[in-house]
């Protein structure tokens, strides 16, 4: 016998509990980063590998939009692409991430090339792209709900980086500050969409599984960083300290 759907409030609580248990703010690498214990090269490795994820966000949103037949949903969702890509010559989360890359001493062109990204990072990010491209729209929206938990990690990151790292200032951390104001609108819409459209227990279970999948994607990237750059097992082809450096450091 199929279980009845959870109430809207109970289902929202279920989704939020996933973040409390599984979001990557709990990962030891972020504890190390925010506490000021990362070496400069560990920070650089994080910036390089996180770029792979950042750069694919507008691509996964474009893949999502290509499947949406409702013009109203497309109008709302395309803001996400604009937030990351910006205008032709200015703005956008991708440019702000590359400003962070320069601030930590990396050549932004090197970072944007993704040449130094670890294989595990590529696999995790590609898995997310395929998920959004191939799974039901409800599941794809549910996977984006890790944004529910992002403001906390952005605030921790700003505080921790400013307290512990010389490169940190308003310019280098502009990506995180901007997301504090950009993300709430996306979160409110995405959460309401999932709570409204997951109207059976089967759909609720699938949406919860999608959110768990996304937390796994984020967690796996940090597992790879720890193994490669904290434990010192850098895989073949991945960035090695000294490569891709800017002509000057902050």
Please characterize this protein's 3D structure:
This protein is mainly α and 250 residues long. The chain has a single domain (8-230), classed as Heme Oxygenase, Chain A (Up-down Bundle). Helices cover 69% and strands 0% of the residues. It has eleven helices and no strands. The longest helix has 30 residues, at 201-230.
Helix and strand topology:
Layout: H1 8-22, H2 28-34, H3 40-65, H4 71-85, H5 93-103, H6 108-113, H7 119-134, H8 137-143, H9 150-164, H10 174-197, H11 201-230
Helix pairs in contact: 1-11, 3-4, 3-5, 3-7, 3-11, 5-10, 7-11, 8-10, 8-11, 9-10
Helix content: 55-70%
Q: Which architecture per CATH?
A: Up-down Bundle
Q: Treating each run of at least 4 consecutive H or I residues as one helix, how many helices?
A: 11
In terms of DSSP E residues, the strand content is: under 5%
Q: What is the string of SSEs from the N terminus onward? A: HHHHHHHHHHH
Shape: globular
| CATH structural class | Mainly Alpha
Largest sheet: none
- The residue-averaged pLDDT reads 94
Q: What's the CATH topology label? A: Heme Oxygenase, Chain A
Give start-end ranges of low-pLDDT stretches: none
Structural class designation? mainly alpha
Number of domains: 1
Fourth-level CATH superfamily: Heme oxygenase-like
- Alpha-carbon Rg, integer: 18 Å
Strand runs, count: 0
State the separation between the terminal residues, measured CA to CA: 62 Å
